[in-house]
Design goal:
The complex is a heterodimer. By secondary structure, chain A is of the alpha+beta class. Helices cover 50% and strands 19% of the residues of chain A. Chain B has a six-stranded mixed beta sheet. In chain B, a hairpin with a 6-residue loop joins strand 1 (3-14) and strand 2 (21-32).
Chain lengths: 401, 225
């Protein structure tokens, strides 16, 4: 159908102004499609990175052992509880599981931790803190602690502690100063402030302390094992599947971040739906524009269509000519709109450098190929009605016009 | 000579009920291969309707029509389209060229649409036909820029492109001055003599009919002479 392609091209080039206007209209629709894709996608990335970017994507926590139950001969149930200090639940075999978990596809980092509550004291000033003991070298495995450091060094070692900016300010602490940390177990340690971080998260900056695992062990009476294992994934959307895999592999209770984040997921889904609607409307606009323009062209060229039919052009040939016009308009408009969309998105900061006050556009989520493909398909579908109308032209009537 | 086409008892009625207009009323006609015939008659006598039916662009209300031994009434749209492309050429009163194409592109259209592309052979034949029409210097001209007479000669060349057995011309000189009309008729007569192509030319101009060896007069819905 090379010849039909020639006719279609000739028809489009015969009236350059009209074709340019039509292609521009399609390009605007594609531009909106791409802009919305980049905005909705960027916004979702932005929200996710701000909400779950610094948290564990999968968490394994030690399960607290239930008290033993005894049934007395009289039929009473007796609960056997240990008197005295509560014991912290432990993942005693963590060292065994870590290599296995690290080998699971999609796992970017694994951080075994000892967590607990404590009091931080310097002189007469005391503050309640949440203490996290992490392995030296894995300080930034989950939370990008290194990226948030505002003073000192993130590297943790024996006798060192890293605090949030607000907490350090509350206690009038500066790098190198010594302070006391008393754990909930009643063990006290003298620690040196080696680093200060600021995440922008109030609760994190005012009540969180990081120490090394070796420092945390005596504080929480855990000579071995850990209280939790935090896991970071390459793709946070794969958390559910990866958690299932880890559960099957280790038997541990691996919990994905999406558990308990239903509201966030609903909000993101609603946002995505809104995006689909807007993109669909853009496509519908393209289809209507192409269909109406081609219908007009069909009407204007009725005598020519009649002549072609009289000269032996079949209905299929006529349909092909008009569908090809639609496809060419869609292709040209699609490419032009995609190029314009890409150029318009270039000035926006990259997804890793979103700044407050700017639109969180993600140029990589412009769906350029999809936009062009859908536009061509839409334009072809839009041209079918005019093409069929053209093929039904009665040569006798048309030639007589 | 052998019969190129034969129609028998053709009826054609436009509209229905009280608005029905019966144009052809039992018209019968036989056209021999190689004839050059004029179709004469007053306006509204049914000349154009007959040409349209003979050109397979329209079917009669009833009657039979055979051309080259094939039943043109029973054939479907696809078969008629292919038949038309191969065996029938048209020349219309208002030339009806494709305005966005050159003279050569217009001439080779019937072949290109059959072949699916413009072959070198088609282009060569198109050039030859245009040269025979005296348009060697207008081959690549946009058809919209040609004069009325030139356009009509391009239309004649286009009608001859696929070497059809029959050329139907509906008032081919009706829109031309006398010189241009004579030129077009001379060309058609030359093709008829040299290639044996059958021409059926509708006209109400006695002088134009004089170029033809046979005159068929249509009136009252049938052939009257």
């Amino acid at each position: 159908m090379l010849y039909a392609l020639k006719i279609a091209t000739r028809y489009l080039t015969a009236n350059k102004a009209q074709t340019a206007l039509l292609v521009s209209g399609v390009a605007v629709g594609v531009f909106i499609f791409i802009f919305m894709s980049a905005l909705i996608g960027g916004l979702a990335e932005f929200i996710l990175s701000r909400t779950v970017g610094d948290i564990s994507h999968i968490t394994i926590e030690a399960e607290t052992a239930d008290p033993a139950l005894l049934i007395s001969p009289a039929g009473h149930v007796l609960v056997v509880a240990e008197r005295g200090r509560a014991r912290t639940a432990t993942l005693a075999d963590a060292a065994t599981w870590l290599p296995l978990i690290e080998g699971v596809p999609g796992v970017r980092a694994v951080s075994p931790q000892i967590t607990g509550a404590g009091f931080l004291a310097r002189g007469a000033q005391v503050a309640q803190v949440s203490v996290t003991g992490v392995e030296p070298g894995r300080e930034s495995a989950i939370l990008d602690l290194a990226g948030y450091m505002v003073a000192g060094d993130v590297r943790l070692g024996a006798g060192l502690i890293v605090l949030g900016r607000d907490l350090a300010d509350d206690l009038n602490l500066s790098i190198g100063q010594t302070l006391r940390l008393q754990s909930a177990n009643g063990v006290t340690a003298a620690l040196t402030l080696s680093g200060i971080f600021k995440t922008g998260n109030g609760s994190m900056d005012s009540a969180r302390a990081f120490v090394s695992l070796s420092t945390a062990r005596p504080l929480y009476a855990m000579p071995q094992g850990v209280t939790r294992i935090e896991i970071k994934l390459d793709d946070l959307n794969a958390a559910d599947a990866t958690a299932l895999r880890i559960r099957a592999l280790t038997g541990l209770d691996a919990v994905p971040w999406t558990d308990g984040a239903e509201q966030l997921m609903e909000a993101l889904n609603a946002q995505a739906q809104t995006g689909y609607f807007l993109k669909t409307f853009a496509l519908i606009t393209i289809v209507i524009g192409v269909a109406s323009a081609l219908l007009l062209s069909t009407y204007r060229r009725r005598p020519e269509i009649g002549i072609m039919r009289a000269m032996g052009a079949g209905r299929g040939f006529v349909i092909f000519v008009f569908v090809t016009q639609g496809a060419l308009i869609g292709l040209m408009g699609g490419i032009m709109g995609a190029a314009l969309g890409y150029l318009a998105l270039l000035p926006f900061p990259s997804r890793d450098a979103f700044e407050p006050g700017t639109l969180p556009m993600d140029i990589t989520q412009g769906s350029y190929g999809l936009a062009i493909t859908l536009t061509v398909i839409g334009a072809i579908l839009a041209s079918i009605l005019p093409a069929r109308s053209a093929a039904r032209v009665d040569p006798v009537t048309a030639i007589g016009q | 000579m052998s019969a190129l086409l034969e129609v028998h008892e053709l009826f054609k009625t436009y509209g229905t009920g009280e608005a029905a207009t019966r144009v052809l009323r039992g018209l019968s006609l036989c056209l021999e291969a190689g004839e050059m015939a004029a179709l004469l008659g007053a306006s509204g006598s049914g000349k154009s309707t007959l040409l349209t039916i003979l050109g397979t662009l329209m079917k009669p209300t009833s009657g039979s029509y055979e051309m080259l031994g094939q039943d043109m009434i029973a054939a479907d749209d696809k078969a008629l389209t292919d038949f038309r492309n191969a065996h029938i050429g048209f020349v219309f009163q208002f030339h009806n060229l494709l305005p966005d194409f050159t003279a050569l592109e217009n001439v080779i259209f019937p072949t290109a649409v059959r072949e699916g592309r413009e072959t070198p052979a088609a282009r060569a034949r198109g050039r030859d036909l245009l040269s025979r029409m005296g348009l060697a210097d207008r081959i690549e001209f946009p058809s919209a820029n040609l004069s009325g007479g030139q356009k009509q000669r391009v239309a004649v060349a286009r009608a001859l492109m696929n070497s059809p057995e029959l050329v139907l011309a509906d008032e081919p000189t009706g829109n031309l001055d006398r010189d241009s009309a004579n030129q077009v008729m001379d060309l058609m007569g030359q093709i008829n003599r040299e290639e044996g192509t059958t021409f059926l030319i509708s006209t109400h101009d006695e002088k134009i009919a004089g170029f033809c060896r046979r005159q068929i007069i249509v009136g009252d819905g049938g052939v009257t002479g």
